[in-house]
Amino acid sequence: MARRKNRNQAAAAGSDEAVVGLRIIGGSLRGRKLQYSGDVRTRPMKDRVREAVFNLLGPQVAGSHAIDLFAGSGALGLEAISRRAARATFIERHLPTANLIKRNAAALGVVEGIDVVFGDAFRWTAGFKPDDTQPLTVFCSPPYDFYVERRDDMVALIGRWAEVSPAGSQIVVEADERFDVGLLPRAEEWDVRKYPPAVVGIMEKDEG
Questions:
Q1: Domains and CATH numbers, the chain
Q2: Beta strands per DSSP E along 4-99
């Protein structure tokens, strides 16, 4: 069956070391702050939306392999680690931002089980193969314009995760209202919620 959400718009400006009020919402690291540069290339999910998303994902996050595509600040994957995900992989194509994710993981004391990949999420997704039956928690929260400018690529990327994810996996997609959620694979299985300007869909991968 299906289930579940978004990333925020923080004002640009400031150095790579600036902290702009980004924090872990729940779990063992609750309340811990994350460094975030305010770079316009990243769009962290708003705290209230992230909390709603993880409430919908529920306890299945624990023990899963969290994959944060278009990772940006890394807040989604690090939130999953706080909520007992077994490990997390972050895909980020902007090198300074990828390095910032590593620094945040180190500051939180969660370097083990963290893999930060400097690269393109589309290419990485195309080559991904699950190495076992461990469920995934996949976060797909790219720049909203991708759903317009690269719509077919986005649909293909989401479709691949729906295809290769083992049973028990959950896939979170964040877009805005310009994206037709009817294009999602197995569209009837997605739980779609609106958190303006975000539209969030969550699918839970069943057996079969």
A1: 22-204 (3.40.50.150)
A2: 22-23, 33-34, 65-69, 87-92
Answer yes or no: are the C-beta atoms of 120 and 95 closer than 8 Å. Answer: no
- Whole-number pLDDT of residue 44: 79
The span from the CA of 28 to the CA of 159, in Å, is 32
Buried b (16+ CB within 10 A) or exposed e, 117-148: beeebbebbeebeeeeeebbbbbbbbbbebbe
Are residues 57 and 36 in contact, defined by beta-carbon separation less than 8 angstroms?
no
Whole-number Å distance between alpha carbons of 175 and 24:
22
Neighbours of 81 (CB within 10 A): 23
Which residues on adjacent β-strands are paired with residue 148? none
Helix (H) or strand (E) holding 151: helix 151-164
The pTM of the full predicted model, rounded to 2 decimals, is: 0.88
Q: What's the average model confidence in pLDDT over 92-113?
A: 96
Q: In 63-150, which ranges are continuous DSSP H helix?
A: 75-82, 95-108, 121-127, 146-149
Answer yes or no: is pLDDT of 41 > 80. no
Pick 189 or 10 by higher pLDDT.
Answer: 189
Q: What DSSP designation does 86 have?
A: S
